[in-house]
Specification:
The protein has one helix at 2-12; strands spanning 29-43, 50-62, 68-75, 82-88, 98-104, 107-114, 117-125, 132-140, 147-150, 157-165, 169-174. The chain is mainly beta. The radius of gyration is 16 Å and the shape is elongated. The protein starts with a helix and ends in a 6-residue tail after the last strand.
């Protein structure tokens, strides 16, 4: 548990100066990482916690001028609602207290912290940036009984007492997936 706490704190304090531009080999390409998070959650303050599985898709397009466009797409645990959160650039932005994307060589590390929880994605590309592999770690602060967040899928405030990310898949493709 200490490891998860340190991981979450590390996400929140990543300095903006550590950010690097995407490699030119990614310009005009997109990549997508998908995974499922398993949580014990409930609507904030209501009833008992219950196990749920939440599918995620993180899509990034690197424009022809090097601008980074990111979309986190989530389907609710019931499968009845879905939603997306869009960001532009590699610097922290939006209501998420820390949201960064740092390119180093052929690796992208994306981090975010939110409502007492944090997520870290490490995406490693092959030498030609034509394929990738990914690892996702999600954790809540060990010092807190639960974390409360606004659901991207439903907009409701949800509370979870545990969270873990499953195996991730990653793919690379040409062009802008957000163009239509």
């Amino acid at each position: 548990m200490k490891k998860l706490t340190l991981l979450a704190i590390g996400f929140a304090i990543l300095p903006a100066a550590a950010l690097a531009a995407p490699p030119r080999a990614l310009y005009g390409k997109h990549f997508k990482v998908t995974w499922t998070e398993t949580r014990s959650q409930r609507l904030a303050g209501q009833g008992a916690f219950r196990p749920v599985s939440i599918p995620y898709a993180y899509t990034v397009y690197v424009g022809t001028e090097g601008t980074v466009f990111k979309r986190m797409f989530v389907v609710s645990s019931t499968g009845k609602t879905s939603g997306a959160q869009d960001r532009v650039g590699t610097k922290p932005s939006g209501s998420v207290s820390a949201n960064t994307a740092n390119f180093s060589g052929n690796t992208l590390t994306a981090t975010s912290s939110f409502g007492g929880a944090a997520r870290r994605m490490q995406i490693t590309f092959d030498g030609n940036f034509s394929s990738c592999s990914a690892q996702v770690v999600t954790a809540k602060l060990a010092s807190e009984k639960s974390a409360t967040i606004k659901s991207i899928a439903s907009g409701a405030m949800i509370e979870f007492e545990s969270v873990s990310a499953g195996a991730a898949s990653c793919s690379v493709g040409p062009g802008n997936p957000f163009a239509n």
